[in-house]
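Section 4.2 – Deliverable D4.2 (structural model, holo form)

The reporting period included a commitment to supply a predicted holo structure for the target in complex with adenosine-5'-triphosphate. Inputs used:
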Amino acid sequence: MQIQLKQLCLQYDCEGRKSDVLQDIDLQIGRGEFIGIMGRTGCGKTSLVQLMAGLLTPTSGQVLIDGEDINSRHYDKTILRGKLGYVFQYPEYQLFETTVYRDVAFALKYSKLSKKEVEARVRQALEDMGFDFAAIREESPLALSGGEKRRVAIAGVLAAQPEILILDEPIAGLDPQARDAFLKLLKKLHAQGTTILMISHNADALADCAHRLIVINDGKKALDGTVEEVFSHEEVLSQMHLDVSFASRMSKKLALPHSVTYEAFVQNLKAKLGGDAQ
Amino acid sequence: MIQAQNVGFAYETDEGLRRVLHEVTLSIQSGEMIAVLGQNGCGKSTFARLCNALLPMQEGKLTVAGFDTSDKKMTFELRRVCGMVFQNPDNQFVSSVVQEEVAFGPENYEVPRQDIGAIVKAALHQVALDGFEHRAPYTLSGGQKQRLAIAGVLALSPKVIIFDEATAMLDPMCRREVLAMMKKLQAQGHTIVMITHYVEEAVLADRVALMQDGKILAFGTAREILCDKEKMDAAKLLMPHAARVYYDLLAEGITLPMCPLTEEELLEAICRFN
Ligand SMILES: Nc1ncnc2c1ncn2[C@@H]1O[C@H](COP(=O)(O)OP(=O)(O)OP(=O)(O)O)[C@@H](O)[C@H]1O
Ligand SMILES: Nc1ncnc2c1ncn2[C@@H]1O[C@H](COP(=O)(O)OP(=O)(O)O)[C@@H](O)[C@H]1O
Ligand SMILES: [Mg+2]
Ligand SMILES: [Mg+2]
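Output (C-alpha cells):
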C-alpha cells in the first residue's frame, strides 16, 4: 500500500465550537492507482487530500505513506515533498515569480538537476499543458487569463515528476480542449506508474480516466469502488448532490448495457439503433 | 442593456501592447440571459471587466444600463447597476465575517442602516447560506465561497449581473441551484451574462456568444449556436453531449430525426427513430 489512512479524524475550531470535518476515514491506496474523489461542496474533500499531503494534521488517526506515519515526530517531511505533487483548488495563488519559466522551475530549485535538465523539464511541462514554450516562458504569470494561470500552476507541479499526484478540482476553469488534453496527459502519467488522486465534480471526466471512485459525504467515506459500481448507485449519489456521467445516466434511461464513458455509450447506442434499422 | 460597438482592448505588458479584443460588437437586450463561451485566454473576462469599468475603455463604445463605461464620473453608479461574480471568489472578499461581507455593498452605497439586516438575510437565503452569518469567509469551502460572492452582488440588486465562471467549483446540485437562481433573477427582470466552460449550462441561455481570439465568432440562440458543429469546431469547443451523439451517429449513417440540445431531446429523438 502506498497511502494508508487509519481511523482518520479532523476537527476544525469554529469560534470555540468544534466541528467534525472528517470522521473515521479508513482508506488504502495502492501504488499506481487512479482514484477520483467526489462529494458535495463542503463535504471535506479538500481537507482529506490535504491530510494525505501533510498540509493538515489530523485530530486523531494516522496517515501512512509507504508505510511511514507522516505526522510522526521522526518523519522527515522533505521525503514527502520529493515524492508527492499537490495541485491546490485555487493553484493560481501559488504563482508568485516574475516569469512563467521561473514559476514552473521553482519546484526544481533544490533538485540536483543541471540547468539544461531543468529547462527540458519546464519545457515539457508547459508543452504538456498546451502552451507554446517560446511564447509563454517570459510572460508574467499575473498577465494570464484564469484558465491559463491554472495550467501554468499545474505545469509547476508536473515538472517535479512526482510519484503521487494529488489534484484538487484541477479541471474547473479549463476550456474543453485544454481539459481533454489534460485528462489524456493524466492517463499517460498513470500508465507510466504515477499514483493519481483527483477531486472533481465532473463525473464525465472521472469516468473517462479514474479506475476507482471514492465518494465522501458529510465527512465520511460513503462509497468506494470501481466507477461502474459507484455510478450504478445513481439514486444514492443524487441524494448526496452528485451526478453520474452522461453515459451512465443515458444508458439506464435507454435500457442499454451500463456504460460510464461516452465512447462506450455511443458504441452501444449504435449497435442498438443500427440493429433496429435492419 | 449592454451595447458594444467596435470595442477593442490591449493590455500593456513588458513586451509592449497585447491586443486581446478586436472590434467586439454585440447588443444584449434587457432581461436576456446570455452565455459567453470560448477558449482560455480568448478575452471573455476582459470584456466582462470593461462592462463594469474594472478596466478602462480604449477603443469603441460600450454602454451598460444606459451608462457609458468610458465616463469616469459615473463609474461608482455603473458598478452598482452592473454586478459581477468572479471566476475566483476569494478575490472579492473584503470582510472577515460573512454577514459583513454581504453588507459591504449596501453600506458602500449608503443604503439606510435599518434596511441592511433584512437585505443581508434575504441575499444569504437566496444562496442557501442561512446560518453562516457569523462565519469567516476564509473558513468556507470553495463552493460555499462562490455562493457568498453571489450573495454579495445580490445585496445591491443590480440590473445586470455578470457571472464569470461563478459555478466552476460547485457540486452538480449547487450548480443547478445557482443556475435556477440565475433564471429566477432573469424572471425578476435582471439581465444575466454567464461566462462558462460548461456547454450544458449555456443551453439554458436565451442567446449564446462564441468568442475566439478576442472576436465574436457567432451570436445566436442557444440552439442555433450549440448544435452547429461547424461553428463550435471553429471556436475549438465541444457541443453538448446530446448534440455530439447526434453527429457521432450521423457519421455511422444513422440519422436521428433532429439534432437534440438536451438529454430529454435526445431521448425523444431516439424514441422517434425507433
Ligand atoms: N493583466 C493582464 N496583463 C496582460 N495580459 C493579460 C492580463 N489579463 C489577461 N491578459 C491576457 O489577455 C487575454 C485574455 O484574457 P481573459 O482573462 O480575458 O481570458 P478569458 O477568456 O477570460 O480566459 P479564461 O477562460 O482562461 O478565463 C489572455 O491572452 C491573457 O493572457
Ligand atoms: N480553516 C477552516 N476552519 C474552519 N472550518 C473549515 C476550515 N476549512 C474548511 N472548513 C470547513 O470544513 C468543511 C470541509 O471543507 P473542505 O474540505 O474545503 O470541503 P470540500 O473540498 O469538499 O468542498 C466545510 O464545511 C468548511 O466550511
Ligand atoms: Mg474543496
Ligand atoms: Mg476568464
